[in-house]
Hints:
182 residues
Amino acid sequence: MAQNLALAILILYLIMAAMFRSFWDSFLVLLAVPLAIAGGVLSLRFLNLFTLQSLDLLTMIGFIILLGLVVNNAILLVVQTRAGRAEGLESKEAINQAVRLRARPIYMSTLTSIFGMLPLAVIPGVGSEIYRGLAAVIIGGMLVNAVLTLVFVPSLLSLEPNMFKLRKREAGKVNSKVLETS
């Protein structure tokens, strides 16, 4: 199970790295995944308060589906921020614009996923217990992801330019020390 999840995350990372042509942007997007997985686990725990739900195959498939769903929100923010920077906006302005422009689509796609899975999670019926774990994972993961993506990803996007400036400054200090000693 853990190997399959790790393989799915690696494949997702490589696809995004090829799409973005940036390992950093792909890394930013993947940082949303652990938060969503935590939301899925908490949702399963909550479901177990009412009815027994084991970690069966369909529940694990729910986690794989969740991987594909949660990266969409982070991708929207990263792409919009990069577009703002390409238009000449400062980093902070580009991030603010990305959050402002993409908050509604993020909430709409999240609510669509949640309300689409809600009948599977709560409506009793013949065979409904089979899909209950899958639905609970997706609902919990998407709820946590919607809230935290709009806080977590912009925070990391705002740190990025400062990290690169710090690296350049440190590299300049190292180069000047090398020149002084030679």
